[in-house]
Amino acid sequence: MLNVLFVCLGNICRSPMAEAVLRDKIAKEGLQEQISVDSAGTGDWHIGKPPHEGTRRMLDQYGISYKGMAARRVSGEDFGTFEYIVCMDKSNGANVRRLPGGEDAKLMYFMDLLPDDEHKEVPDPYFTGNFEEVYELVDAGCEVLLEKLKQDLASK
Description:
By secondary structure, the protein is of the alpha/beta class. The chain has one domain: Response regulator (Rossmann fold). Helix content is 42%, strand content 13%. It has six helices and four strands, in the order E-H-E-H-H-E-H-E-H-H. Strands 2-1-3-4 form a four-stranded parallel sheet. The protein is globular and about 40 Å long.
């Protein structure tokens, strides 16, 4: 089983969108028994809350489920559980590094999946309001990540 954790600030916009999109792609490939996905935030403001209404609206538009998703905070225990910890921006990566065990955690940044894109980080739609732009980035990046995960599974 490969385990993927997406990390953003509050765990209500970017990371739950990526979680839902990747879960949907995994289900369409029939890989639910081989790849698990979760998301978390580095802040604690929204713990227990569902994804932001803008995220829900985008996921609804594309028929992607977010049922049962609730914000949580990333913890040091995640470092032993997840092979892929995918941070949506450098600030959240730095916050993860400050957690106990985080200095040695193997992190990657979401936009590294899309090296030709003009964005260096996934913009936070909580502040920009542009959930469509974020969905397009997340959808494209999750497609690349899924291919990487399938290669990793094949090599095991």
